[in-house]
Amino acid sequence: MGNDGGSIPRRNEMVREKQQDEKVDRKAQLLAMNFFCALSKQPLREPIVGDGLGRLYNRESILEYLLDPRAFGDGDRICGHIKSAKDVRTLNLSRNPKFDQTRSSSKQTLSFDDQPTAQFVCPVTRKEMNGNLPFEFNWRCGCVVSAQARKEMADLATCLACSQPVEAKDIVPINSLDAEVVDSLRQRIDERKQAKKQKSSKPKSKSKAKRQHSEQDAQPAALSLASALEGKGAKKTKTLA
Fold first, then answer.
1. Which residues pair with 138 in a beta bridge?
2. Half-sphere exposure of residue 152: CA atoms within 13 angstroms, side-chain side
3. How far apart are alpha carbons 74 and 72 in whole angstroms?
4. Which residues neighbour 176 within 8 Å (Cβ) at sequence distance 6 or greater?
C-alpha cells in the first residue's frame, strides 16, 4: 500500500516527526542568532550591540549600514527600525574562558551533534549564552544576564551586573522567537521614541518662554534706561545754557 512494500506511517508518527523537525529548525535558528551578526551574517565579535528587538549585531556592521543602507541587501528588512546609533546599545558581555581555550586549541564549527562553546556567559549563573537558555539585557546600561538569574534574585530594582537602576520596561529579551514578545518590543520602541520626542520638546518650550519673558523684562528696562539718558541729556543742556 505504500508503493514500496512498506507500511503507511500513522498520523501520530507524522506529527511527531514534524514536531522534531520544527524543534531542530528552532535550535538551528537560535544557534545562528546567538553566534552570528543578524545583519552581516558574520561571527559576532566585540563590540557587539543590541537593538530594541533584542537582535545582536557587530557594531561595525551597524555603522556601515547607517552610512550606507544599501551596503547590505536585506538591511531594510532586518533593521529598518534602526535610524541612528541611539537605536542600539553597546552590550556589556561576560567572556567565557572555555571559548578562548577552544578557539586557541582548534577552530570550532557549528554543529547539532556537538554544541559549540559560547563566547559569553551569564556573570551570575555562569550559564553559556548559546541559545539554549533565554538571555536579556538592560536597555539603560547594556549589561547582559540570563533570564534565570534575574528571576532568582530578590532585588529586581538594580542591574545584577553593575547595580544601576533598572525597570521592567528596560529589560530586552535577546533573540526571542515568540511573536507576542517581539510585538511588545516593537511597541516599546515606539513608546521610547515618543517619550524622547516629548522630552526634547519640553526644553524648547521652556527656553522659548524664558526668552519671551526675558524680552518682556528687557523692554521696561530699556525704556527706563532711555528715559534716564534723556534726563541726563536735558540736565547737561541746562548747565551749558
1. 171
2. 7
3. 6
4. 54, 134, 182, 185
Cα 127 to Cα 52: distance, rounded to the nearest angstrom: 23
Distances (CA, A) of 206 to 22, 114, 192, 201, 211: 56, 61, 22, 9, 8
Asked whether the predicted pLDDT for residue 213 surpasses 90, the reply is no
Give residue for cell 538591511.
Answer: 75
**Cα 17 to Cα 2, 11, 114, distances in angstroms:** 18, 10, 22
pLDDT of residue 220: 53
Query: Above 70 in pLDDT, residue 178?
Result: yes
Query: Strand, helix or coil at 91?
Result: coil
pLDDT confidence of residue 114: 64
Residues forming beta bridges with residue 49, ordered by sequence position: 57, 90
Ramachandran angles phi, psi of 174, nearest 5°: -90, 125
Q: Which three cell numbers, joined as nine digits, stand for 91?
A: 552590550
Q: Is the peptide bond preceding residue 173 cis, with omega within 30 degrees of 0?
A: no
- Mean pLDDT, residues 122-133: 95
Specify the long-range contacts of residues 93-98, CB closer than 8 Å, at least 24 apart. 93/46, 93/48, 93/119, 93/120, 93/129, 93/144, 94/120, 94/121, 94/122, 94/123, 94/144, 94/161, 95/119, 95/120, 95/121, 96/120, 96/121, 96/128, 96/129, 98/128
Q: Choose between 208 and 135: higher pLDDT.
A: 135
Beta strands across the sheet bearing 144-146: 144-146, 135-138, 171-173
Tell me the whole-structure pTM to 2 decimals.
0.72
Cross-strand pairs, 172: 137
The helix or strand, by DSSP H or E, that contains position 89, with its residue range, turns out to be: strand 88-90
